[in-house]
Design a protein that fits this description.
Membrane topology: Multi-pass membrane protein
InterPro entries: Cobalamin_biosynth_CobD/CbiB
Distance between the termini: 17 Å
Number of domains: 1
Main location: membrane
Number of helices: 13
Strand order of the largest sheet: 1-4
Keywords: Cell membrane, Cobalamin biosynthesis, Membrane, Transmembrane, Transmembrane helix
Helix content: 55-70%
Pathway: Cofactor biosynthesis; adenosylcobalamin biosynthesis
Structural class: mainly alpha
Number of strands: 4
């Protein structure tokens, strides 16, 4: 079709025609996902509407079955049974919603903005950054301690910036990017299970002494679910002007990784921004020494925002590639 005919057809198209054209392309899961990303940014979503808002409820449920007097075998069983029962009940509820709501598109556009949690991370990051910029170290430590399991009350200014970078990077990777990947793999069920497992792992964190045994299953389950996400994340991170530096640091540090998910993720992002991550930290009063990974420079108050924007860019790139792949295979 000549260019002139395409332009004339576009001029003659009514708003109704454009609306139906938009609805037709919403049949692509990647387009639904992109729309949900935009909706999540625009809507004033409150934390209590998101799954992460249920973390206190999960913690209370864990406290009822994870009693100090329980035998080890009973604790292990409870640590397996509670997550499986929770995931099963949520998935069955989702299937009931599918039965009640005839349109998968509408259901996805309602639930995905709730499952994609990036705005809460942004607000938390800015709350700490504001205190750092105001030279208020004690307040920055106190705000950071509210959502981190490690001891933040003895951190230096650089330590606060580093902890904020690590928190922002891992939360965006787990609670936002991994949700998109699992949505493309297993639709809403995949996104729901991934977010549920992430929230429960935070609620039953095995780094807390009371959850050392109880939280081991949910931690291993989360790590297993994050592995295919990491496989997707690595090549997308290499689409960067810093690709050579990233590959060089991965090769140098890979034998020193202490976690097969968080270590490579932080190494990739730290190498991209050329900031040093990892190193010693306090958990329950005990100092744990982790290998320094990432780049060469110390992070500052702007570093966390840079990592946040990079993961968001990687997420947009992932969605665009999914749309292109769908169009190519449908030709």
């Amino acid at each position: 079709m000549p260019v002139e005919q395409i332009i004339d057809a576009a001029k003659e198209a009514s708003i109704k025609d454009l609306f139906f054209a938009f609805v037709s392309i919403l049949e692509y899961p990647a387009v639904i996902l992109f729309t949900a990303m935009v909706v999540e940014l625009i809507l004033p979503t409150k934390k209590k509407w998101c799954l992460s808002g249920m973390a206190p409820l999960f913690s209370k449920a864990a406290a009822k079955v994870n009693r100090p007097e329980n035998a080890i075998s009973q604790t292990v069983f409870s640590g397996i049974f509670l997550p499986i029962a929770t995931v099963t009940s949520f998935v069955l509820t989702l299937e009931l919603l599918r039965f009640c709501v005839s349109s998968d598109v509408i259901l996805s556009l309602i639930l995905l903005p709730i499952l994609l949690e990036s705005k809460g991370t942004l607000y938390q990051m800015f709350s700490v950054k504001r205190e750092i910029d105001n030279k208020n170290r004690e307040s920055a430590r106190a705000v950071l301690q509210q959502f981190m399991k490690r001891d933040c009350m003895t951190l230096s200014d650089m330590g606060i910036c580093k902890a904020l970078c690590e928190y922002t990077a891992m939360r965006m990777f787990i609670n936002w990017f991994s949700i998109m990947v699992w949505y493309m793999i297993l639709d809403l069920e995949g996104a729901l299970v991934m977010q549920l497992v992430a929230v429960m792992n935070n609620s039953f964190n095995f780094k807390e002494k009371k959850n050392e045994v109880f939280g081991s299953f949910i931690y291993k389950l989360e790590q297993s679910l994050l592995f295919p996400v990491l496989i997707v994340f690595i090549p997308l991170m290499l689409c960067s002007f810093s690709a050579i530096r990233i590959l060089k640091h991965l090769k140098q540090h890979i034998t020193e990784y202490t976690s097969f998910i968080s270590s490579p993720v932080l190494d990739l992002l730290g190498s991209y921004a050329n900031i040093s991550l990892g190193g010693p930290r306090l958990y329950n009063g005990s100092k744990i020494r982790l290998t320094r990974i990432g780049g060469a420079n110390d992070p500052d108050s702007r570093s966390a925002l840079r990592l946040y924007n990079k993961i968001r860019f990687v997420g947009v790139m992932f969605v665009c590639l999914c749309v292109i792949q769908k169009i190519v295979f449908s030709l």
